[in-house]
Amino acid sequence: MRAIKHADAADAETIKVWAEIKKRKVQLNLMIPRLTMKTTKRHFSTLTQYWHFLATYGHVAQGDNIFTEWPFPGTAPDKSLRDVWSGENLRLLFCSTEWRGYSDDSVEHWAPLIALFSGMRLEEICSLRIPQDVEIDGIAHFKVREHFDDRENDGSPLARNFEPKTTAGVRKVPIHSWLIEHGLMRLIGLRQRDGSRLLFPKLRRSGVDRKLSSEFSREFSRLKKRLGVPKTVVFHSFRVSFRTGVSQSNLPDAMLDTITGHEGAIPDRLIDATAGRAASKRGVGADYERPARYDLKVLQKVVEAFAPPIDLNFVEPIAALADKVP
Q: Is residue 306 a contact partner of residue 176, using CB atoms and an 8 Å limit?
């Protein structure tokens, strides 16, 4: 009997707790909805750029930006949890029947390879346009830059044009010889022949941020999990692997920063082409060009200094692309 009474008392306490939770839940639903910290941070970032624009024309004080230096707790990713792609994990990916089963001209096939051999961000790769963002004459290179007056594949205006993550993100990235030997020029030629607007024309914008990379990112995460790749190894880890590999060549960090679009590569003085004068901060609606610190020949040496942790010759060059006729 004592056991039954004890159980009944415990149940009564549980029922009381759940009743209180239900009551509070109803109260919360009646409250005015709040923005998440991540959304607030995104709005403040936009307002920061607008303040810089106003300061450029003297409408507000240059150094009194009220939208900067806010902590936004819980929004900063823990980059220390990102590992590089080891040789073992690269084999798991590139030897898998799933990755090898992707079409030779698909983003699933090419995005990991381009990221590994260039250090480019995923959205930068997915947003590459043909021919605006790829130069094949002379030293072949990608051009990472803002997209203005762009259109979706169906011709409708974009909800949001592509913009590099940072000002330093506007750059030229020489194409690694391994990618060329693997068949990237054949893919580019195919896209030019069929008149595709994007290097990967099947991509569609989705998600809250309307990114071209959203669906691929989710699929890559699912594939990685199925293959047993650790959680700490993500797509961005290709970028980490590239930086780590080049760093071992003892080239100056500034050269590597220029290739990867790292903030350390930004000079203090930017050019405001709209106003025709110097601007200490980035503005809105202006076209910025960073002074060329290194020419393409130098940057090409930086890219070619990278070698993956394993020999990827088992990933055969793509020859079938040349036979595809639009």
A: yes
Alpha-carbon distance of 50 to 282, in angstroms, equals 9
Do 121 and 29 share a structural domain?
no
| Angle between helix 87-94 and helix 107-118 axes, rounded to 10 deg | 160
Answer yes or no: is 62 within a domain: no
- In terms of domains, do 96 and 13 share one? no
Domain hosting residue 260, numbered range: 78-323
Q: Which of 216, 220, 177, 180 is nearest to 321 (CA)?
A: 180
> Half-sphere exposure of residue 22, counting CA atoms within 13 Å on the CB side?
6
Instruction: Based on the fold, state whether residues 23 and 90 are members of the same structural domain.
Output: no
Residue 116 lies in a domain: yes
Give the pLDDT confidence score for residue 152 in this predicted structure.
53
Question: Average pLDDT by consecutive 10-residue portion of the chain (326 residues)?
Answer: 67 71 58 68 76 77 72 59 86 96 95 96 93 90 77 51 68 95 94 91 85 93 95 94 90 86 52 34 39 77 94 84 52
Are 18 and 93 part of one and the same domain? no
| 131 and 253 share one domain | yes
The Cα-based distances of 151 to 16, 17, 196 in angstroms read 57, 54, 12
* Helix (H) or strand (E) run with residue 271 in it: strand 270-272
Residues comprising the chain, all counted: 326
Whether 174 maps to a domain, the answer reads: yes
pTM: 0.67
Token pair for 265: 């590569």
Quote the tokens at residue 294: 């290194």
Does residue 261 share a domain with residue 191? yes
- Same domain, yes or no, for 285 and 148? yes
CB atoms within 10 A of CB 247: 13
The total of structural domains in the chain comes to 2
170 sits in which H/E element: none
Inter-CA distances, 269 with 92, 265, 283, 291, Å: 45, 12, 13, 9
- CA dist., res. 237 & res. 119, Å (int): 9
For residue 79, count other CB atoms closer than 10 A to its CB. Answer: 8
